[in-house]
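Exercise 7. Given the encoded structure of a 179-residue chain, write a plausible sequence.
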């Protein structure tokens, strides 16, 4: 159970471009039907399109650009994104993972574990598939000892949560004179 984000940005861009083209075309058609000069000069566009052949450089460049845009959109649509829900380890031995944790919740839980260490006033966590980067700010104490204590606290919390793939913990402590 790994949920990936939707491709809403790419889909929204394509939808907006198509909507703008349809509105522009509809306005031009209504203007033409009312006898006003249309926004899109149909006669000139028709003459321009009739003059193009498959060997024209402009025509080939336009076709290549459109094909490239289409290819980029297909790659964006097919490529999986960063998972938003991470699977938890199978605890009952059934072989099916049916529980998960959002990346945001995991980061928040690890941040709370890091701030539970004496001397750490605030911490932020940024996790990816393979590592969890903890940036902690200390008000007092030895940076090396705090780094070890934060790493132990975060690793212990990770073991309690039990993700299917446990990330490697990287800790950076700031705010002490020794760091």
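Solution.
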């Amino acid at each position: 159970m790994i949920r990936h984000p939707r491709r809403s940005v790419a889909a929204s861009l394509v939808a907006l471009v198509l909507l703008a083209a349809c509105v522009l075309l509809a306005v031009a058609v209504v203007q033409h039907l009312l006898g006003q000069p249309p926004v899109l000069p149909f006669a000139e566009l028709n003459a321009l399109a009739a003059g193009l052949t498959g060997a024209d450089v402009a025509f080939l460049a336009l076709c290549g650009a459109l094909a490239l845009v289409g290819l980029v959109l297909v790659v964006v649509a097919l490529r999986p994104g960063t998972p938003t829900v991470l699977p938890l380890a199978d605890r009952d031995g059934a072989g099916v993972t049916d529980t998960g944790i959002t990346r945001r919740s995991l980061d928040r839980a690890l941040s709370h574990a890091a701030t539970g260490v004496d001397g750490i006033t605030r911490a932020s966590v940024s996790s990816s598939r393979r590592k969890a980067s903890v940036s902690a700010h200390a008000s007092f104490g030895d940076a090396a000892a705090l780094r070890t204590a934060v790493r132990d606290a975060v690793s212990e919390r990770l073991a309690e949560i039990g993700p299917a793939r446990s990330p490697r913990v990287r800790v950076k402590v700031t705010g002490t004179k020794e760091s």
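Remark. Residues 8-78 form one domain. Students should compare their own answers with the one above.
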